[in-house]
Specification:
Rossmann fold
Amino acid sequence: DGLAVNITGHVDFYPPSGRMQFIVKKIEPAAGGKTGLYLQKEQWRKQLEAEGTIPRPESEKRSPPLFPKCIGVVTSRTGSVLQDIRNVLSRRYPLPVLLAPAQVQGAGAEVSIISAIESLQGKVDVIIVARGGGSFEDLFVFNHPDVVRAVRNSAVPVISAVGHETDVTLVDFASDRRVPTPSAAAETVVPDRTVLLNNLEDYRRRIHDRTRGILSTNRQTVAELKLRVDPSRLSRRLDMMQQQTADLAERIGSAFVRRIEGQRDLLSQMQERIFKGASAKIRTASLELAGEKEKILAADPKKPLERGYALVQMGGTVVRSKNQLKKDDRLTLCLADGEVTATVEKIV
């Protein structure tokens, strides 16, 4: 695997065939080179585990905001990493990207990375620490204890996207989430606006269908009430239905606002159009209910009595003509506020 080792043994030579071979007695890791870096990483890992810096407990891992307003990226100013992240964001959910340029390999890179992470605190909603693929030595700075501590102590959620899927650094264990590539990190921190718009359209259709169903039910109820003659009972029922309709309109509006609150301007504009349409239909239904109420109240036979007319009865029968009467007949006059008894004295 490319490890540097020290081998101890002796050379054996066989003259008849001219063959030479090396007889190995002992193999030991070399003090420097790649082996030394592996040993250094292992020492750092044990040190960070002893102090509790890694691994980050699952209960302490933070998820990025559902709708972040700004994303911070710690990576090299040059290279394809930053452009890959921007391409994914522009396709899925365009939003500002704040670059904190850092040296991502070589001497002093750990200081540059730490400074970049600290510079983004309080300015972004989530930080992506990213670097493209490379050798073990190229990625070694992301094992440095100070870099690992900076990631663990960040007040902002950190996504680790260092190297490829098979590359594992100590930063991965301190971050809130580890992803295989910078592009995958961009997909992790933002939603897909196409999915959001499809969901919003589905909500709009549900509200529209529900509103139409309610209005249809109310119209059917009004039709049934028209078959009943009791104006006072119908009036109370209509008043109650109007109150229920108003309450329903308020619930629909509140639920609609809660669902899409916090989304971007495009979602807010669609909310306003849907809510206005639903409110207009409900107001139309309320006006129709009020009109039906007035028609039924106008058909009340006792209504004319309030304008000064009287209902004449004799023996419980309504008198419609003077030909039904004769002198000294006793009559009952029904007025708006009571009854009066009268006697026929003269028929003209």
